[in-house]
Every structure is written in structure tokens, then in C-alpha cells.
Amino acid sequence: xxxxxxxxxxxxxxxxxxxxxxxxxxxxxxxxxxxxxxxxxxxxxxxxxxxxxxxxxxxxxxxxxxxxxxxxxxxxxxxxxxxxxxxxxxxxxxxxxxxxxxxxxxxxxxxxxxxxxxxxxxxxxxxxxxxxxxxxxxxxxxxxxxxxxxxxxxxxxxxxxxxxxxxxxxxxxxxxxxxxxxxxxxxxxxxxxxxxxxxxxxxxxxxxxxxxxxxxxxxxxxxxxxxxxxxxxxxxxxxxxxxxxxxxxxxxxxxxxxxxxxxxxxxxxxxxxxxxxxxxxxxxxxxxxxxxxxxxxxxxxxxxxxxxxxxxxxxxxxxxxxxxxxxxxxxxxxxxxxxxxxxxxxxxxxxxxxxxxxxxxxxxxxxxxxxxxxxxxxxxxxxxxxxxxxxxxxxx
Length: 396
Fold this sequence. Notes:
Layout: H1 9-23, E1 27-38, E2 44-49, E3 54-59, H2 61-64, E4 75-86, E5 91-104, H3 106-120, E6 138-143, H4 148-160, E7 165-170, H5 178-189, E8 197-202, H6 216-224, E9 229-233, H7 241-245, E10 248-249, H8 253-260, H9 264-298, H10 306-347, H11 350-354, E11 360-363, E12 366-367, E13 380-383, E14 388-391
Parallel strand pairs: 3-5, 6-7, 6-8, 8-9, 9-10
Antiparallel strand pairs: 1-2, 1-4, 2-3, 4-5, 11-12, 11-13, 13-14
Helix pairs in contact: 4-8, 5-6, 9-10
């Protein structure tokens, strides 16, 4: 019996490498720049794409030093180079030797046109920007419930100001329908009367990944929001349309949460200081009144019976002592209530409970509290301390 002929992965990959690198030399390609990275080594890494395809590109430092411009995402360029294959990953790329600037790509043109349109309408006016509250009690968040941005926001809230309440309006933040989803979530949060500020954003990504925050429907939802909006799209260099329309721009969701929440330790220190100032002011005021009475009692002009005045003075001393005691008890009670609130928040941290081996069940991003609320025919999630496992429902 003759054994079937076969090749190793390495042999096949090397044959592909030889074929591609031999037949695709000095290829000239036109496309739009995406995911551009200028590495600290001096090399450039980017993707060249059109409407239906994309190819990874590398331009080594020795070649890009001859280019008179630095590419930007959305820029239309013409490049010439050789195809190369990297066997360990089986990837192919275009090693670019020559680059010429054609102009901006379709997305960049759309961005500039919308930016100009909304600016003329006054949506970017600084005079319309609303102040962000210093210590909001409730913050609305528009982002993906499964993304890192939401977890970052929760983490910052617990660290800086655990008294703040977060309300998440889940939204798609990438792909078809994302802009409409974001706009709908903003409108939904505006139905609340007690939400004081909104954070709208997501983590970083390419120009295409972040495009929902450059669409008109998102911009107009931010503009019509009755609640002040902080735009928090994860890109530190370029601005999105949402950044221009929002009341405040933050480079990342983490930075946004730090901007809208005070440092809890500083807040409690401030309260302690103010309580001490109030106590001191009241004591000083009462002492001043006592001094006036004492001067009146010892005055030679006083003709009324001195004993009667002394009795009144004693009553005043007693009232002052009682007031001081009551104020001290009130201050002590206020501090105890603040400490109790912090301890209660920490004790009810769901992650602390989950570290003991507990999990919780969610379905359609909603917590399932009792078994009758669970639709066993539909997908549901088991949430562990370190991961989430999705369980496929069974059709009986």
C-alpha cells in the first residue's frame, strides 16, 4: 500500500514564500492608510486598504527617511515595494520602498465635510459648553457592556469616589448600526431626572473602528442631550466629531471618569476641615456673647440686682455647654455615618463576594435573580470573578 504524499507546514510555507517573493516585486499600489504606527525604532507599520481588501505594509527606517511627509490615517497614497512572507506566522506583507501622497481618503473627506457643516450650525461653540459637576451623585455611561472601557470606568469610580452611582446604557460602539445605537442610548439616559453627567465613549482602535463617533447621528444626539456630555473615545492624538460637540473631551474613558469624580479622600478631608471651622466659629461667637454679658454684669452702671444677672449668666453657661456637647455629638455622628457608608459599599462589592466562589447569571445583559426569570431556551452567561462563560440554551 502506497502512503499518501505530504508536505510539512514549513516546506509548504517556504514554497509559498519563494513563489510570492519571486513573482511580486516592485508592485505599485494605491490605497488608503489605516492603523498607522511610527515605531520608536524608526520603522513604519500600516495597512493599505480600499473598499473590499487590505494589505499589511512595512516601511523600514532607511526607506521612510526619504519620504517628505508622515502618513496619517485616511490619507490616500501610492506605494511601490516587494511582497515578503514571514514563515513563523504565515503572514505576507508589502515591504514599501517608495511612497507618494495622493491626498486624503474617503473617510477623511467625510470627516472634514461633517465637521465644517456642524461648525457652521454652531454645534462646536464654546459658549454652549456646559460645566461638568464637581461631585456628581449619578453618572450615565454609554459604551459596550463587554468592553474594557466599562470595566475601567467602574475601577476608577471605586478607587476615587465609591459613593457615585453608575448607570450603563449598553450600546454598540463599532460596525453597522453603532452610531444609531449610541444615539439611542444617549436619548434613553436623558429620560432620567437625577443623572448629572454622561460619559460617551470606548477604547482605542483604528479610524474605521472609531467611525461611529464621527457620524452625524451621534453628534446630534450629544448636541440635544439635556445632560452635560464628556466624550471619551480612546485616542489621544486625533479628535473625533463627538469630541468637538461634547461639553468636555477626555483622551480615554479612564481619564473621563477621573475628570468627573473627585478624589474621595480629599472630599472627606475637606468635610472634616469645614466641620472644624464651623465648630470653631460657633464657639467663638458664643464666647463673644458671654464676654458681653460678663462686662455688663461687672459694669458699675448696672442698677439691677446683681444676683439676678448672675443666675441668668449661669443659665447661659449651661446652654452654651449643652450646645457644645450637642454639636460635638452631631459632628461625631456625621463622621460615623460617612464611615459606615464607605464600609457598606466595600462590604457589598460583588467582586469580594465572587472571590469566595460565587457566580452570577445574566441574560441579555440583565441580572437573573430567580430561576423563573431565566429563559433556558436562550443564551445566558455565567459570570465568574475572572471571566464570563456563555451557555447555549436548549430547545426541548
